[in-house]
Amino acid sequence: MSIFKHHAKIETNIFFMAVGILLTVVVGGLVEVIPLFSIESTIEKVDGVRPYSPLELAGRNIYIREGCYNCHSQMIRPFKDEVERYGPYSLAAESKYDHPFQWGSKRTGPDLARVGGKYTNDWQVRHLINPRDVVPGSVMPGYKHLSRPLDYADITAHLKANRVVGVPYTDAQIANAKKDLEEQVFADPASSPAVAASYPKARIGSASGKDKVTEMDALVAYLQVLGTMVDFTTVKPGAFNR
Amino acid sequence: MATIEKDSVSGQNTTGHEWDGIKELNTPLPKWWVYVFWASVVWAIGYWVMMPAWPTLNGYTKGYLGYSSRGELEKDLAEQKKSRSAWLSKIEASDVGAIEKDKDLLRYAMAGGKIAFNENCAPCHGVGGVGAYGYPALADDEWLWGGALAEIEQTIKFGVRNTNSSSRQSEMPKFGADGILKDDQIGQAADYVLSLASKAPAKGSAGETVYTENCAACHAEDGSGNKDLGAPALNNQIWLYKGTKKDIVDQITKPKHGAMPAWTERLDASTIKMLAVYVHNLGGGK
User: Fold this and answer.
1) Taking a C-beta distance cutoff of 8 angstroms, is the pair B233, B225 a contact?
2) Which stretch of DSSP H or E encloses residue B14?
3) Are strands B55-56 and B59-60 parallel, antiparallel or unpaired?
């Protein structure tokens, strides 16, 4: 037990004490930092994941503002029961453009990682206005106030901010942010608008049916794209095992 | 300099420090705590060897056991598939008609269909297919796109008015909003539709003329509708968007169109077959 008595020498010498603290902090820091060097290898290489369209991004901001994450996760875990109910488990690649990601672990409501396309726009709008209209036993609050116009004067800045943290928006996408946002609501889906070419699988059309862009339009556009970017019919099961 | 003394009460040494006459005992850590601590250290080293643990330059250490949560899931799913295969292989091999004729297979399909229905269909069509405003009831014998087994299966597979190329498509013209009919004509047509619905068509009325010229092509002379076009029957009291005169005028002026996802994009073929059988047996299957 004698070696444990020598710590008094370190504790009573300011130089040794400082070196000792430094070494401890360095080890602790490295353990946290080193795994990030190989983060690229943890993101699955899949096709289809793209940055959010301006309208979807605005909807995502509303999702965060309204605190949807308090009751809904966006993370299908690799368990049998979850995969059976929600679909293929979530990949890291699917949230690589999320800042911050919305994985969560609190589920008062169902997981939303693959809710895109599961319901129609009309259903989403009615459900958001008053959930009890379509799901009698629901405990979710109504979000009637989302029928108000969307404030998207600063949408270009939102795209730029995302680019700063690594989302690969192109210069053209940033320049067209406002136009793309309006087009996604008001363009005729059959006319193959530019926004659809820039953001494949973006849901074109007005969810709320109003003549202004509403917060509802943005939120529904976001919900409708969740989990739909990767085409799981072309991905082999087991391709991402690790 | 510190003088270490033996405390007479506890028998432990003191640390030798003294503050205003207060001395500190140097009681060692309990033995059990020290053992658990060292056991944890040994366990951690064993864990690093057996399980995925350390990041490396181009990946991570896989561990002797080769555990992976996604690999475990694959095993679980394979096992589950095997345990269900006795029934599922029969469902895969049979068409919906054959499933309904086999009593045991029907029971299995109804149970499986119910689970899939409650998760995927009930949000719109209601639990048990009772329907809601804008979403047709499935438990009655009134069908928009046909209530035969094969028709139900087709509707579930490809949905209604969505982007799937095989989706069922149809669109009622905006008679009011596009100026095809004048407001008074729309009112007359609505009156005639109401008379059709109460099984007492107002023959010879102005509404009948408007109806025959504009509506009958899809909804039929007698208002019995057309399943190929998804044109609802108007000669009964079942309404998708409610049945007051105002509701009917609104629908003729600027029609609302329901939509349904193409479930073949989300669910496998067996699940869709079970759903079709379940819906067909909710009460109104043709």
Assistant:
1) yes
2) strand B14-19
3) antiparallel
- The amino acid sitting at A142 is G
Structure confidence by residue, pLDDT tens digits, A188-207: 888 888 999 999 999 998 98
CB contact under 8 A, A127 and B120: no
Interchain CB contact of B134 with A (< 8 Å): yes
3-state secondary structure (DSSP) of residue B82:
helix
Please judge whether A242 and B70 are an interchain contact, meaning their C-beta atoms are less than 8 angstroms apart. yes
Amino acid letter, A201: K
Q: What is the pTM of this model?
A: 0.85
* Interface list for B 181-210 with A (CB within 8 A): none
Fold of A54-225: Cytochrome Bc1 Complex; Chain D, domain 2 (1.10.760)
- At A13-72, the pLDDT tens digits run 999 999 999 999 999 999 888 877 777 777 888 889 999 999 999 999 999 999 999 999
* ipTM entry: 0.79
- Tell me the C-alpha distance between A32 and A23, whole Å: 15
Asked if A51 and A169 touch (Cβ cutoff 8 Å), the reply is yes
Count Cβ neighbours within 10 Å for each residue of A154-180 and write b for 16 or more, e otherwise: ebbebbeebbeeebebeeebbebbeeb
Q: Which domains does chain B have, with CATH numbers?
A: 14-60 (no CATH), 70-167+260-280 (1.10.760.10), 183-253 (1.10.760.10)
